[in-house]
Automatic annotation (TrEMBL):
NCBIfam families hit by this protein: PME_inhib
Alphabetical keyword list: Disulfide bond, Signal
Family: Belongs to the PMEI family.
Residue stretches making up the Pectinesterase inhibitor domain: 46-193
InterPro entries reported in the protein's UniProt record: Invertase/methylesterase_inhib, PCW_Enzyme_Inhibitor, Pectinesterase_inhib_dom, PMEI_plant
Protein name: Pectinesterase inhibitor domain-containing protein
Species of origin: Rehmannia glutinosa (Chinese foxglove)
Gene3D superfamilies for the chain: Invertase/pectin methylesterase inhibitor family protein (1.20.140.40)
Keyword Signal: yes
Length: 204
């Protein structure tokens, strides 16, 4: 049990380093778009009708509407999509840090062994999700909409894996399930926008 605990703690520490590195990279880097890539097929103007058509397909109509209302009269790509991407990634980082705080608050390793193990897995899931979102950002900078949606879906599945772990813990009371739901809702906005852009262009 002691060897397993030490190994788990070491792996947990490595994941923390990964999160810190990802956070530092995001602070120092911003998405740079090639001005030549925004061509006619990618130009979808944000109107009331477009907002309604997008938002009713998402998990959170009000949040979606609030975000897109800021971009009325502008193109759906790149700024609105980049804005949503930033919110999804920011929420993932905030949730990962919350998991660390909750984990550290469980001092009794024997009593909370199963719960701590679930949080370790969730932290890894969120770390993997952030890596997928970083890949999505790179594709977005190149106006490659199809892989953006695919990477976002991968990230969503990672967080869903966390939910499956939490479902096994009847006394989980950190509110992490609610955080996961918010991640789903924000991600759904991202993917519906990608779907709307995808319909406006032919993707091989």
């Amino acid at each position: 049990m002691t060897k397993l605990s030490l190994l788990s703690s070491f792996l947990f520490f490595l994941i923390l380093l990964t999160i810190s590195a990802t956070a530092n990279c995001s602070k120092n880097e911003s998405i740079t778009f090639n001005p030549g890539i925004v061509k006619a097929p990618l130009v979808v103007i944000v109107t009331d009708e477009v907002i309604q058509n997008i938002c009713y397909k998402t998990g959170d109509y009000n949040t979606c509407q609030h975000i897109l209302n800021q971009f009325k009269g502008k193109t759906l790509f790149p700024k609105p999509l980049a804005n949503v991407m930033a919110q999804v990634k920011r929420h993932a980082k905030t949730t990962a840090k919350k998991i660390v705080r909750v984990y550290d608050g469980m001092k009794d390793q024997h009593r909370f062994f199963e719960m701590r193990d679930a949080y370790r897995k969730c932290l890894k899931d969120y770390t993997d999700a952030m890596n997928e979102l970083t890949k999505a950002e790179k594709s977005m900078a190149d106006a490659k909409i199809k892989p953006v949606r695919e990477y976002a879906l991968n990230a969503l599945n990672k967080v869903r894996s966390c939910d499956q772990e939490l479902a096994k813990q009847w006394h989980e009371a950190s509110g992490l399930t609610h955080d996961n739901k918010k991640f789903y809702d924000l991600s759904s906005i991202l993917m519906v926008i990608c779907g709307t852009l995808k319909m406006s262009i032919r993707i091989d």
